[in-house]
């Protein structure tokens, strides 16, 4: 039986760590959501891209995102006491790559820079979440859910902020290139701030000392059936989610004729419920088990994604998006906590990188959805996305997940 006793050294500074990590995650998602929810749709409209061309832009970002995540897993375990530096690099690279994206003169250079855009944000999750997991072994699901809540707040703010800037809601109308250019300043400011906030927080030691040990720990994790299932389900969920999040803004713009500021409000609405639901789901999964939360919620997410195609009124569309938002990012944090349970507290950055890296398997999903859109209609991207998530829920239902610490101690 595992113990819930946490040493004073582990507890020291953990609340400050939580605040810092959540703040950084909020900033990261303001940028990501502004790009993916509004700026990408503006790029497609401005440059007259086909569905396949547009999907390939999103795919290029996800390719480097997945591969960088695996590197971040090794670095997060090898240099656990330097997490602040990693977060500084993550947010700094993000701002610089956004500036370069705004300067790209044609489609092919846009796609090349999108490869760079995928690197910065992907360096964030592994050291941040692993630090939380080490500091909160007794409340892992809840702590990781708080990290996710910061991301959801960023997902709410980003589309509204960027949509308003492009539409001229805030007195002056900016182009999508202008928004990307001015974004570098705040990114560098928050990168330095997060580093300064983290530099004096003691972190738990790690047992990964070399690249060889990293890959040994990775092989050990992948020998566990539950871990393989979680990787597969995460890949399927990512496949479905990336398709819908790429084409929902395009659908709202091209099929329903909404302005970019309204599209921003819709995409923000997709995250509002997640801010409230995410910590509740984390607490429930700690108390009653991960699977009790994951299976019904993953199934509901898949059905709601598919239901977007049939939402034939504005009110129904809004309700569907709000309900879907309860699961979009909330579930991911519970998948990570489940993987931490399977790993039994070992190589925690490696575990985070493995689950985030599983999203790489869905990297080509926006392009596949784009091909479907070009041959049929935009709303069929939602049927494709929903089906992928539901298949993942079925696999998860057949998977045996370990009991949480709280379950063990409650008998």
Q: Helix-strand pattern, N to C?
A: HHHHHHHHHHHHHHHHHHHH
Unreliable spans are none
Give the assembly state of these chains. Answer: single chain
**Helix/strand-derived class?**
mainly alpha
- Kindly estimate the percentage of residues that lie in beta strands according to DSSP: under 5%
Mean pLDDT: 83
Map the helices and strands.
Elements: H1 8-11, H2 14-47, H3 51-78, H4 83-103, H5 107-117, H6 119-122, H7 125-135, H8 140-167, H9 176-182, H10 184-198, H11 211-222, H12 225-255, H13 260-288, H14 290-307, H15 314-325, H16 330-343, H17 348-358, H18 365-375, H19 380-397, H20 405-410
Helix pairs in contact: 2-4, 2-7, 2-8, 2-10, 2-12, 2-13, 3-5, 3-7, 3-17, 3-18, 4-5, 4-9, 4-10, 7-8, 7-17, 8-13, 8-16, 12-13, 12-16, 12-17, 12-18, 12-19, 13-14, 13-15, 13-16, 14-15, 14-16, 14-19, 16-17, 18-19
Structure description:
With 411 residues, the chain is mainly α. The protein is 79% helix and 0% strand. It is built from 20 helices and no strands. The protein has helices spanning 8-11, 14-47, 51-78, 83-103, 107-117, 119-122, 125-135, 140-167, 176-182, 184-198, 211-222, 225-255, 260-288, 290-307, 314-325, 330-343, 348-358, 365-375, 380-397, 405-410. The longest helix is centred in the N-terminal third of the chain and has 34 residues, at 14-47. The protein is globular, with a radius of gyration of 20 Å.
């Amino acid at each position: 039986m595992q113990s819930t006793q946490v040493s004073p050294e582990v507890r020291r500074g953990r609340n400050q760590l939580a605040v810092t990590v959540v703040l950084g995650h909020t900033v990261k998602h303001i940028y990501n959501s502004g790009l993916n929810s509004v700026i990408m749709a503006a790029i497609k409209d401005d440059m007259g891209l086909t569905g396949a061309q547009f999907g390939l832009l999103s795919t290029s970002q996800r390719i480097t995102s997945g591969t960088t995540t695996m590197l971040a897993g090794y670095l997060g375990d090898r240099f656990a006491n330097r997490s602040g530096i990693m977060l500084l690099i993550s947010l700094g690279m993000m701002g610089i790559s956004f500036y370069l994206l705004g300067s790209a003169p044609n489609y092919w250079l846009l796609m090349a820079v999108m490869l760079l855009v995928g690197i910065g944000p992907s360096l964030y999750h592994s050291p941040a979440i692993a630090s939380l997991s080490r500091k909160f072994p007794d409340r892992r699901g809840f702590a990781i859910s708080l990290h996710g809540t910061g991301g959801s707040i960023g997902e709410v703010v980003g589309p509204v902020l960027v949509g308003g800037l492009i539409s001229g809601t805030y007195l002056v109308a900016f182009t999508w290139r202008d928004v990307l250019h001015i974004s570098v300043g705040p990114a560098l400011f928050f990168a330095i701030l997060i580093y300064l906030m983290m530099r004096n927080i003691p972190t738990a030691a790690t047992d990964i000392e070399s690249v060889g040990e990293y890959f040994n720990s990775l092989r050990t994790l992948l020998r566990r059936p539950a871990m393989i299932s979680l990787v597969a389900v995460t890949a399927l969920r990512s496949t479905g989610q990336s398709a819908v999040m790429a084409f929902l803004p395009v659908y709202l713009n091209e099929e329903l004729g909404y302005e970019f500021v309204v599209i921003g409000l819709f995409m923000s609405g997709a995250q509002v419920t997640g801010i409230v639901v995410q910590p509740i789901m984390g607490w429930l999964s700690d108390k009653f088990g991960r699977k009790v939360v994951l299976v019904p919620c993953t199934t509901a997410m898949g059905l709601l994604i598919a239901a977007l195609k049939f939402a034939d009124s504005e009110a129904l569309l809004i309700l569907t998006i709000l309900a879907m938002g309860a699961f979009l990012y909330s579930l991911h944090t519970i998948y990570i906590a489940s993987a931490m349970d399977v790993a039994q507290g070992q190589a925690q950055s490696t575990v985070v990188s493995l689950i985030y890296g599983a999203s790489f398997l869905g990297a080509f999903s926006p392009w596949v959805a784009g091909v479907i859109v070009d041959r049929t209609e935009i709303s069929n991207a939602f049927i494709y996305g929903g089906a992928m998530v539901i298949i993942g829920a079925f696999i998860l239902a057949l998977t045996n997940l370990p009991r949480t610490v709280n379950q063990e101690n409650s008998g």
